[in-house]
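User: I'm preparing a small set of examples for a lab meeting where we compare how different chains pack in three dimensions. I only have the primary sequence for this one, and I'd like the structure in token form so I can line it up with the others. Please keep the answer compact; I'll paste it straight into my notes.
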Amino acid sequence: MSATTPAQAAALASGRGNPRLASILLGILPPLAVTIFAFGVALGVRGDHVPMLALALTTGALCLVPLCLDMARPPERRHLLLSILALVFLSHFVLPVFTHYLLVEGPTDAASTSNTNLFPRHVVRGQWVALLGLLSLLAGYATLPLRVSPARERQRLLHDWPPQVTVLIGLLMLPFGWSIVVAGYLGLLGALGTGFIGALASSINYGYVLLTIAALRYRSRLAVFVLVTTLPLATALGFLTGSKRRTLVFLATVVLTAMLVRARIRARWLLAGLAVLMLLYPLSQFYREVILDDNRRTVVDVLRNPAPALEAVSDYLGGSRSSSYVLEGVMATGSRLDGLGIESVIVRDTPAVSPFQKGRTLGLFFLAFVPRAFWPDKPEITIGRWITAVYGSGPHIESSTGPTFLGEFYLNFGTLGVVGGMLLYGILLRLFQASFLGPNATTPGILAATVVVVQVLTKLMGTFSQTLSATAFALAPILATHFLVVFLTGRPSARVPAAPEAPLGDPSRG
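Assistant: Understood. Below is the structure token output for the 510-residue chain.
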């Protein structure tokens, strides 16, 4: 039974927690929040903006607590999924206060909506619900007894993949995933259902995750070569689709995998990703609206004759002023990250505008597993258009608005729905952390954890039911591949069992 690779052993030996730094940062958070609050009041924050600022600082400080606690732990003992989620929560429900809502006096619209007329008091009420949701999530995560974790599946994922198998599967997944994506562009796969197709197309991401793991854990030169040579092409093709997500998803996958392998969140990586997103947004918007939509061209058309598209992009960049370009990117990125606005609209308008749904939207989770090939008239499992019609810009607008997890829980059962839903979310997150990461993290475990981050953590702006179904679709091929590897390779190498996981708030014990 093998323990760790030499590279892993060296990484774990060099990785040490810093309880002193963690204690200092935890001690700084409250006075820093008070200082910023006092500074804001001195600058003229008045009326309903005062509780808005106070709640933003309180929620933001609470979001930073998991990251500070993780600094006290050695890398293999960190609650990495919770720390990543805390950063995502901060970006969606705290930062919009400083980038938008504190800067306007009268009514304003939630991001990507019109005629929603949010007053500061409405935003404050939404902040209270968001803070309650965050507290509930942390409570669910911290109090879950680990004895209820799925021990059998956990033991199965303790079996690691040999390095050669990791590289081979990664290499096979890339062309398989791209064949699905290309067939989708050509309109050949629509009848199979978006959930199934999405799971197959995610093979590209799986391939890059496995190759990154092979490069970092096993120092595979072949994996490094494939990453260096194919990532630029994949990024360029993603840009040609006009989608920012498809442009950045593969690079983001590699960075995320590096975070999970090394159990370390680098601030410079996060800042670099945010900067790239802000710089990419105006160019991507121009490409999609002018080159694709206005000229009625598809990705296939652009690939057949890319010269006009490249010339138009070059002219746009050459004719843009740097200051206005950057400002447009900052404002657009801030708007895309805003989940507080629509959540505040839902809290304000439920049940006055729309009655509580009493679990109807959450029940759509089960419909996702019925293929459209067997049920052609299956209802949409997304509620984005309904949110736009009822809570957003109105039924005359063809758009899809994500309600956020908090908003969906509230529109179903009100405040109790937020408490119960976020408690469940915290429990699921702790189960994922215990099953996939930790001291015994394996290649399939890290791969599954990457899926959890992409599906469950970064999609707080969407719907809880759809996110869970998408996660199930994404995890299924990973588990199937793992069982196949175990079957074909015989008795696999297993990780040395680790000591029980320490409580969330006890950094001294890991």
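A couple of notes for your slides: DSSP finds 22 helices and no strands in the chain. Confidence is low (pLDDT under 50) at residues 1-14, 147-156, 494-510.

User: Perfect, thanks.
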